[in-house]
Protein backbone atom coordinates (compact mmCIF):
# COMPACT_ATOMS: atom_id res chain seq x y z
CA UNK A 1 0.00 0.00 0.00
CA UNK A 2 2.84 2.35 0.87
CA UNK A 3 4.55 1.63 -2.47
CA UNK A 4 1.33 2.30 -4.36
CA UNK A 5 0.85 5.57 -2.49
CA UNK A 6 4.47 6.55 -3.19
CA UNK A 7 4.00 5.78 -6.89
CA UNK A 8 0.84 7.92 -7.07
CA UNK A 9 2.53 10.80 -5.25
CA UNK A 10 5.53 10.57 -7.58
CA UNK A 11 3.28 10.64 -10.65
CA UNK A 12 1.31 13.60 -9.32
CA UNK A 13 4.51 15.45 -8.40
CA UNK A 14 6.02 14.80 -11.84
CA UNK A 15 2.96 16.00 -13.73
CA UNK A 16 2.57 18.97 -11.40
CA UNK A 17 6.21 19.97 -11.86
CA UNK A 18 5.83 19.83 -15.65
CA UNK A 19 2.69 21.95 -15.58
CA UNK A 20 4.33 24.45 -13.23
CA UNK A 21 7.46 24.64 -15.40
CA UNK A 22 5.60 25.29 -18.65
CA UNK A 23 3.17 27.76 -17.07
CA UNK A 24 5.94 29.60 -15.25
CA UNK A 25 8.36 29.84 -18.19
CA UNK A 26 5.59 31.06 -20.51
CA UNK A 27 4.59 33.65 -17.91
CA UNK A 28 8.17 34.89 -17.64
CA UNK A 29 8.58 34.96 -21.42
CA UNK A 30 5.37 36.97 -21.84
CA UNK A 31 6.63 39.34 -19.17
CA UNK A 32 9.94 39.90 -20.96
CA UNK A 33 8.30 40.30 -24.37
CA UNK A 34 4.80 41.72 -23.68
CA UNK A 35 2.30 41.59 -26.52
CA UNK A 36 1.37 45.25 -26.11
CA UNK A 37 2.83 48.69 -26.60
CA UNK A 38 4.79 50.08 -29.52
CA UNK A 39 6.92 46.94 -29.98
CA UNK A 40 4.07 44.44 -29.64
CA UNK A 41 4.58 42.90 -33.09
CA UNK A 42 8.33 42.48 -32.63
CA UNK A 43 7.84 41.09 -29.11
CA UNK A 44 5.34 38.51 -30.33
CA UNK A 45 7.74 37.32 -33.04
CA UNK A 46 10.62 37.06 -30.56
CA UNK A 47 8.50 35.26 -27.97
CA UNK A 48 7.23 32.78 -30.58
CA UNK A 49 10.78 32.05 -31.72
CA UNK A 50 11.89 31.34 -28.14
CA UNK A 51 8.78 29.51 -26.91
CA UNK A 52 9.48 26.14 -28.65
CA UNK A 53 12.85 25.98 -26.88
CA UNK A 54 11.07 26.21 -23.54
CA UNK A 55 9.34 22.94 -24.39
CA UNK A 56 12.42 21.32 -25.93
CA UNK A 57 14.79 22.52 -23.22
CA UNK A 58 14.12 19.82 -20.58
CA UNK A 59 14.25 17.03 -23.19
CA UNK A 60 17.54 18.34 -24.62
CA UNK A 61 19.01 18.66 -21.13
CA UNK A 62 18.00 15.10 -20.22
CA UNK A 63 19.31 13.73 -23.53
CA UNK A 64 22.60 15.50 -22.96
CA UNK A 65 22.87 14.18 -19.40
CA UNK A 66 21.74 10.61 -19.99
CA UNK A 67 22.75 9.98 -23.62
CA UNK A 68 25.39 12.32 -25.04
CA UNK A 69 27.56 12.53 -21.92
CA UNK A 70 27.65 8.72 -21.38
CA UNK A 71 28.62 8.20 -25.04
CA UNK A 72 31.51 10.67 -24.79
CA UNK A 73 32.57 9.20 -21.45
CA UNK A 74 32.47 5.65 -22.85
CA UNK A 75 34.67 6.62 -25.80
CA UNK A 76 37.20 8.16 -23.38
CA UNK A 77 37.06 5.15 -21.02
CA UNK A 78 37.74 2.76 -23.90
CA UNK A 79 41.30 4.13 -24.03
CA UNK A 80 41.91 3.56 -20.33
CA UNK A 81 42.67 0.55 -18.14
CA UNK A 82 40.45 -1.37 -15.70
CA UNK A 83 40.24 1.44 -13.14
CA UNK A 84 39.59 4.10 -15.78
CA UNK A 85 42.67 6.06 -14.65
CA UNK A 86 45.65 4.64 -16.55
CA UNK A 87 45.85 5.46 -20.27
CA UNK A 88 46.41 2.33 -22.39
CA UNK A 89 45.80 3.69 -25.90
CA UNK A 90 44.26 1.15 -28.29
CA UNK A 91 45.16 -1.85 -26.11
CA UNK A 92 41.48 -2.53 -25.32
CA UNK A 93 40.62 -2.64 -29.02
CA UNK A 94 43.55 -4.97 -29.71
CA UNK A 95 42.33 -7.24 -26.91
CA UNK A 96 38.78 -7.11 -28.22
CA UNK A 97 39.47 -8.58 -31.63
CA UNK A 98 41.71 -11.31 -30.23
CA UNK A 99 39.33 -12.35 -27.44
CA UNK A 100 37.42 -15.63 -27.86
CA UNK A 101 34.56 -14.41 -25.67
CA UNK A 102 34.01 -11.35 -27.85
CA UNK A 103 34.05 -13.45 -31.03
CA UNK A 104 31.45 -15.79 -29.51
CA UNK A 105 29.29 -12.82 -28.47
CA UNK A 106 29.55 -11.20 -31.89
CA UNK A 107 28.74 -14.48 -33.66
CA UNK A 108 25.67 -15.03 -31.46
CA UNK A 109 24.51 -11.44 -31.96
CA UNK A 110 24.72 -11.87 -35.73
CA UNK A 111 22.72 -15.10 -35.41
CA UNK A 112 20.05 -13.23 -33.43
CA UNK A 113 20.07 -10.51 -36.11
CA UNK A 114 19.34 -13.00 -38.88
CA UNK A 115 16.58 -14.86 -37.06
CA UNK A 116 14.66 -12.61 -34.64
CA UNK A 117 13.76 -9.57 -36.84
CA UNK A 118 12.82 -11.83 -39.77
CA UNK A 119 10.70 -14.20 -37.67
CA UNK A 120 9.01 -11.44 -35.64
CA UNK A 121 8.15 -9.42 -38.74
CA UNK A 122 6.94 -12.50 -40.63
CA UNK A 123 4.69 -13.76 -37.83
CA UNK A 124 3.49 -10.21 -37.14
CA UNK A 125 2.54 -9.74 -40.81
CA UNK A 126 0.72 -13.08 -40.91
CA UNK A 127 -1.10 -12.28 -37.67
CA UNK A 128 -2.06 -8.81 -38.94
CA UNK A 129 -3.45 -10.24 -42.18
CA UNK A 130 -5.38 -13.09 -40.54
CA UNK A 131 -6.83 -11.20 -37.57
CA UNK A 132 -8.32 -8.59 -39.93
CA UNK A 133 -10.30 -11.35 -41.66
CA UNK A 134 -12.01 -12.94 -38.62
CA UNK A 135 -14.88 -11.71 -36.48
CA UNK A 136 -12.97 -12.06 -33.21
CA UNK A 137 -9.85 -10.42 -34.65
CA UNK A 138 -9.59 -7.76 -31.93
CA UNK A 139 -9.57 -10.42 -29.21
CA UNK A 140 -6.89 -12.35 -31.12
CA UNK A 141 -4.82 -9.18 -31.48
CA UNK A 142 -5.08 -8.51 -27.76
CA UNK A 143 -3.83 -12.00 -26.94
CA UNK A 144 -0.93 -11.75 -29.41
CA UNK A 145 0.00 -8.28 -28.17
CA UNK A 146 -0.22 -9.24 -24.49
CA UNK A 147 3.42 -10.46 -24.18
CA UNK A 148 4.52 -6.88 -24.96
CA UNK A 149 3.19 -5.93 -21.51
CA UNK A 150 5.58 -8.39 -19.84
CA UNK A 151 9.15 -7.41 -19.00
CA UNK A 152 11.95 -9.39 -20.62
CA UNK A 153 12.88 -10.87 -17.24
CA UNK A 154 9.25 -11.84 -16.57
CA UNK A 155 9.01 -13.46 -20.01
CA UNK A 156 12.26 -15.33 -19.32
CA UNK A 157 10.85 -16.73 -16.08
CA UNK A 158 7.76 -17.96 -17.94
CA UNK A 159 9.87 -19.66 -20.60
CA UNK A 160 12.17 -21.18 -17.98
CA UNK A 161 9.16 -23.22 -16.92
CA UNK A 162 8.51 -24.15 -20.56
CA UNK A 163 12.09 -25.47 -20.90
CA UNK A 164 12.28 -26.95 -17.40
CA UNK A 165 13.69 -30.46 -16.97
CA UNK A 166 13.25 -32.92 -14.10
CA UNK A 167 15.16 -36.11 -13.33
CA UNK A 168 14.35 -39.58 -14.58
CA UNK A 169 11.09 -41.16 -13.42
CA UNK A 170 9.86 -37.73 -12.31
CA UNK A 171 6.91 -36.09 -14.01
CA UNK A 172 8.07 -33.28 -16.29
CA UNK A 173 6.51 -29.91 -15.48
CA UNK A 174 8.25 -28.18 -18.40
CA UNK A 175 5.80 -27.96 -21.30
CA UNK A 176 8.38 -28.81 -23.98
CA UNK A 177 9.80 -31.82 -22.14
CA UNK A 178 6.29 -33.00 -21.22
CA UNK A 179 5.43 -33.06 -24.94
CA UNK A 180 8.70 -34.84 -25.79
CA UNK A 181 8.11 -37.49 -23.12
CA UNK A 182 4.49 -37.96 -24.21
CA UNK A 183 5.76 -38.65 -27.73
CA UNK A 184 8.19 -41.24 -26.41
CA UNK A 185 11.36 -39.14 -26.41
CA UNK A 186 13.91 -38.27 -23.75
CA UNK A 187 13.74 -34.97 -21.84
CA UNK A 188 16.51 -32.49 -22.60
CA UNK A 189 18.10 -29.57 -20.77
CA UNK A 190 17.28 -27.34 -23.72
CA UNK A 191 18.99 -24.13 -22.64
CA UNK A 192 22.29 -25.94 -22.01
CA UNK A 193 22.61 -27.29 -25.56
CA UNK A 194 25.43 -25.29 -27.23
CA UNK A 195 24.42 -23.41 -30.39
CA UNK A 196 20.81 -24.64 -30.28
CA UNK A 197 20.15 -22.90 -26.98
CA UNK A 198 20.48 -19.58 -28.84
CA UNK A 199 17.35 -20.44 -30.82
CA UNK A 200 15.46 -21.38 -27.66
CA UNK A 201 16.31 -17.95 -26.25
CA UNK A 202 15.35 -16.24 -29.51
CA UNK A 203 11.88 -17.74 -29.26
CA UNK A 204 11.26 -15.58 -26.19
CA UNK A 205 12.03 -12.32 -28.00
CA UNK A 206 10.08 -13.42 -31.08
CA UNK A 207 7.10 -14.20 -28.82
CA UNK A 208 7.29 -10.67 -27.38
CA UNK A 209 7.98 -8.69 -30.56
CA UNK A 210 5.42 -10.42 -32.80
CA UNK A 211 2.69 -8.37 -31.12
CA UNK A 212 4.55 -5.12 -31.81
CA UNK A 213 5.03 -6.04 -35.48
CA UNK A 214 1.39 -7.10 -35.79
CA UNK A 215 0.00 -3.79 -34.49
CA UNK A 216 2.15 -1.62 -36.78
CA UNK A 217 1.61 -3.79 -39.86
CA UNK A 218 -2.12 -4.12 -39.21
CA UNK A 219 -2.45 -0.33 -39.30
CA UNK A 220 -0.43 -0.26 -42.54
CA UNK A 221 -2.63 -2.92 -44.15
CA UNK A 222 -5.76 -0.99 -43.27
CA UNK A 223 -4.29 2.09 -44.94
CA UNK A 224 -4.00 0.38 -48.33
CA UNK A 225 -6.38 1.99 -50.86
CA UNK A 226 -9.35 -0.31 -51.56
CA UNK A 227 -9.20 0.60 -55.25
CA UNK A 228 -5.97 -1.37 -55.74
CA UNK A 229 -7.43 -4.47 -54.11
CA UNK A 230 -10.69 -4.19 -56.09
CA UNK A 231 -8.75 -3.83 -59.34
CA UNK A 232 -6.75 -6.97 -58.53
CA UNK A 233 -9.98 -8.89 -57.80
CA UNK A 234 -11.47 -7.78 -61.13
CA UNK A 235 -8.31 -8.99 -62.86
CA UNK A 236 -8.87 -12.44 -61.36
CA UNK A 237 -6.16 -12.43 -58.67
CA UNK A 238 -6.63 -14.94 -55.84
CA UNK A 239 -6.27 -13.94 -52.14
CA UNK A 240 -2.63 -15.07 -51.96
CA UNK A 241 -1.71 -13.09 -55.07
CA UNK A 242 -3.51 -10.03 -53.72
CA UNK A 243 -1.63 -10.30 -50.44
CA UNK A 244 1.85 -10.95 -51.88
CA UNK A 245 1.72 -8.78 -55.03
CA UNK A 246 -0.65 -5.98 -54.09
CA UNK A 247 -0.65 -5.46 -50.33
CA UNK A 248 2.92 -6.34 -49.30
CA UNK A 249 4.62 -4.06 -51.89
CA UNK A 250 2.49 -1.13 -50.72
CA UNK A 251 3.52 -1.53 -47.08
CA UNK A 252 7.13 -2.49 -47.75
CA UNK A 253 8.38 0.74 -46.15
CA UNK A 254 6.51 -0.06 -42.93
CA UNK A 255 7.81 -3.63 -42.98
CA UNK A 256 11.37 -2.28 -43.29
CA UNK A 257 10.87 0.11 -40.36
CA UNK A 258 9.46 -2.67 -38.17
CA UNK A 259 12.33 -4.95 -39.20
CA UNK A 260 15.03 -2.40 -38.39
CA UNK A 261 13.37 -1.36 -35.11
CA UNK A 262 13.49 -4.97 -33.92
CA UNK A 263 17.06 -5.24 -35.25
CA UNK A 264 18.16 -2.35 -32.99
CA UNK A 265 16.49 -4.07 -30.04
CA UNK A 266 18.27 -7.34 -30.85
CA UNK A 267 21.67 -5.64 -30.90
CA UNK A 268 21.02 -4.54 -27.31
CA UNK A 269 19.47 -7.81 -26.07
CA UNK A 270 20.57 -8.47 -22.52
CA UNK A 271 17.82 -9.34 -20.04
CA UNK A 272 16.79 -12.62 -21.65
CA UNK A 273 20.32 -14.01 -21.84
CA UNK A 274 21.14 -12.87 -18.30
CA UNK A 275 17.99 -14.41 -16.82
CA UNK A 276 18.09 -17.66 -18.80
CA UNK A 277 21.75 -18.69 -19.13
CA UNK A 278 23.90 -15.75 -17.99
CA UNK A 279 25.91 -16.30 -21.17
CA UNK A 280 26.86 -19.88 -20.32
CA UNK A 281 26.87 -22.86 -22.70
CA UNK A 282 27.87 -20.75 -25.70
CA UNK A 283 24.96 -18.29 -25.49
CA UNK A 284 26.89 -15.09 -24.69
CA UNK A 285 25.87 -11.84 -26.45
CA UNK A 286 27.57 -8.45 -26.61
CA UNK A 287 25.43 -6.59 -24.05
CA UNK A 288 25.74 -9.37 -21.49
CA UNK A 289 29.48 -9.62 -22.17
CA UNK A 290 29.79 -5.87 -21.53
CA UNK A 291 27.86 -6.31 -18.27
CA UNK A 292 30.19 -9.13 -17.20
CA UNK A 293 33.34 -7.05 -17.71
CA UNK A 294 31.81 -4.02 -15.99
CA UNK A 295 30.31 -5.58 -12.87
CA UNK A 296 32.11 -8.93 -12.57
CA UNK A 297 35.47 -8.24 -14.19
CA UNK A 298 35.49 -4.67 -12.80
CA UNK A 299 37.20 -3.50 -15.98
CA UNK A 300 35.73 -0.19 -17.09
CA UNK A 301 38.00 0.09 -20.12
CA UNK A 302 37.07 -3.23 -21.71
CA UNK A 303 33.36 -2.88 -20.95
CA UNK A 304 33.36 0.61 -22.51
CA UNK A 305 35.08 -0.79 -25.59
CA UNK A 306 32.34 -3.40 -26.03
CA UNK A 307 29.72 -0.66 -25.54
CA UNK A 308 31.33 1.36 -28.36
CA UNK A 309 31.12 -1.67 -30.67
CA UNK A 310 27.38 -2.03 -29.91
CA UNK A 311 26.85 1.69 -30.56
CA UNK A 312 28.73 1.55 -33.87
CA UNK A 313 26.53 -1.36 -34.96
CA UNK A 314 23.30 0.39 -33.93
CA UNK A 315 23.89 3.88 -35.39
CA UNK A 316 23.75 3.03 -39.16
CA UNK A 317 20.57 0.98 -38.69
CA UNK A 318 18.99 3.75 -36.62
CA UNK A 319 19.83 6.41 -39.23
CA UNK A 320 18.36 4.26 -42.00
CA UNK A 321 15.27 3.61 -39.87
CA UNK A 322 14.69 7.33 -39.30
CA UNK A 323 15.07 8.06 -43.03
CA UNK A 324 12.54 5.37 -43.95
CA UNK A 325 10.09 6.64 -41.34
CA UNK A 326 10.40 10.16 -42.77
CA UNK A 327 9.74 8.85 -46.27
CA UNK A 328 6.48 7.28 -45.05
CA UNK A 329 5.46 10.57 -43.44
TrEMBL record:
<keyword id="KW-1003">Cell membrane</keyword>
<protein>
    <submittedName>
        <fullName>Sugar ABC transporter permease</fullName>
    </submittedName>
</protein>
<dbReference type="InterPro" id="IPR035906">
    <property type="entry name" value="MetI-like_sf"/>
</dbReference>
<comment type="similarity">
    <text>Belongs to the binding-protein-dependent transport system permease family.</text>
</comment>
<keyword id="KW-1133">Transmembrane helix</keyword>
<dbReference type="InterPro" id="IPR050809">
    <property type="entry name" value="UgpAE/MalFG_permease"/>
</dbReference>
<feature type="transmembrane region" description="Helical">
    <location>
        <begin position="143"/>
        <end position="163"/>
    </location>
</feature>
<dbReference type="GO" id="GO:0055085">
    <property type="term" value="P:transmembrane transport"/>
</dbReference>
<feature type="transmembrane region" description="Helical">
    <location>
        <begin position="199"/>
        <end position="221"/>
    </location>
</feature>
<feature type="transmembrane region" description="Helical">
    <location>
        <begin position="175"/>
        <end position="193"/>
    </location>
</feature>
<feature type="transmembrane region" description="Helical">
    <location>
        <begin position="251"/>
        <end position="276"/>
    </location>
</feature>
<feature type="transmembrane region" description="Helical">
    <location>
        <begin position="300"/>
        <end position="322"/>
    </location>
</feature>
<feature type="transmembrane region" description="Helical">
    <location>
        <begin position="110"/>
        <end position="131"/>
    </location>
</feature>
<dbReference type="Pfam" id="PF00528">
    <property type="entry name" value="BPD_transp_1"/>
</dbReference>
<feature type="transmembrane region" description="Helical">
    <location>
        <begin position="53"/>
        <end position="72"/>
    </location>
</feature>
<feature type="domain" description="ABC transmembrane type-1">
    <location>
        <begin position="106"/>
        <end position="321"/>
    </location>
</feature>
<dbReference type="GO" id="GO:0005886">
    <property type="term" value="C:plasma membrane"/>
</dbReference>
<keyword id="KW-0812">Transmembrane</keyword>
<keyword id="KW-0472">Membrane</keyword>
<keyword id="KW-0813">Transport</keyword>
<dbReference type="InterPro" id="IPR000515">
    <property type="entry name" value="MetI-like"/>
</dbReference>
Amino acid sequence: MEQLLLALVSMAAGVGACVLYFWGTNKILDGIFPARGQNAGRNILRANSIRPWLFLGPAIALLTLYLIYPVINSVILSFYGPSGQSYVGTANYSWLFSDAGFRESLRNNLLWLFVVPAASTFFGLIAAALTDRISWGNIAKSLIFMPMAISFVGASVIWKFVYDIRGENIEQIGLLNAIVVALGGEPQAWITLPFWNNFFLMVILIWIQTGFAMVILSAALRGIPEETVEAAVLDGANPMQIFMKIKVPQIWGTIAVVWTTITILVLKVFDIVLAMTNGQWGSQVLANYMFDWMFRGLDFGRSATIAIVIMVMVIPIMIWNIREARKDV
